Amino acid sequence: MIDQEFTGHLLLMMAPMGSGKSMLVRHTKENYPAVYFSVSCTTRSPRPNEIDGVDYYFISKEEFRKKIDNDEFVEWAEFSGNLYGTLKTEILDRLANKQVVLTEIEIQGIEILKPLIPEANRTILYIEAGGWEVLKRRAQKRAPMSEEELVLRYERYEHEIKVKALADKVINNFDGEAEVAKRDFDNLLKEVFLKVNS
To answer: Is 127 within 8 Å of 21 (Cβ atoms)?
Structure first.
């Protein structure tokens, strides 16, 4: 843990592709304006429709390295040749100011943040949608993928499901049960806001 007083709450959301994470994020943005969505830094190029400062802070590798040297990240990692990192200002400063912060994160980030944030101020959340075949079908429905890409996705899935064992809360989002998942997520958010405002 770090020497800082926290009055807010951090929701660390982790889920494999196709599990419905984007649906729950969209639902939260539409219904819980008080939840702050932390924005990560990345050195990858923006995809179509992505907005700087909303989806990511798109920065150069040089800028990213400078931020590492200045100890500005609470966690950072490299994936597929690109750097991704969470700024301290996006999480720690907001938790010190009674905010509820939601961040989508990789397992390495959870392993780093878990000892930094007291248990009372964080919830590790995992979205469960079923096995690999279910997730593969959902992902392919959204956009076709090559066999090579599927192999890489499967390797990542094998890595991502390990976080389920670290989760404080598992939200089930099985086929046809999106409304149940939203309701369970609503209940979790209500508990968090009660805790923060009590």
So the answer is: yes
Distance (Å, rounded) from C-alpha 81 to C-alpha 61? Answer: 10
User: Where on the phi/psi map is residue 104: left (φ > 0), alpha (ψ -120 to 50), or beta?
Assistant: beta
Closest CA to 73 of 82, 65, 62, 85: 85
- pLDDT at res. 3: 60
Average pLDDT over the chain reads: 89
- Compute the distance between CA of residue 46 and CA of residue 123 in angstroms, rounded to an integer: 29
CATH of domain 9-197: 3.40.50.300
Backbone angles phi, psi at 184, to 5 degrees: -65, -40
Phi-psi group of 82: left, alpha or beta (phi > 0 → left; psi -120 to 50 → alpha; rest → beta) = beta
pLDDT per residue as tens digits for the range 108-155: 788 888 888 999 999 999 999 888 787 788 777 777 778 888 777 788
Cα angle for residues 9, 94, 13 (degrees, 5° grid): 45
DSSP letters spanning 35-94: EEE---EE-SPPPTT--BTTTBEE--HHHHHHHHHTT-EEEEEEETTEEEEEEHHHHHHH
- Give strand pairing partners of 77: 84
Q: Residue 16 in contact with residue 157, Cβ under 8 Å?
A: yes
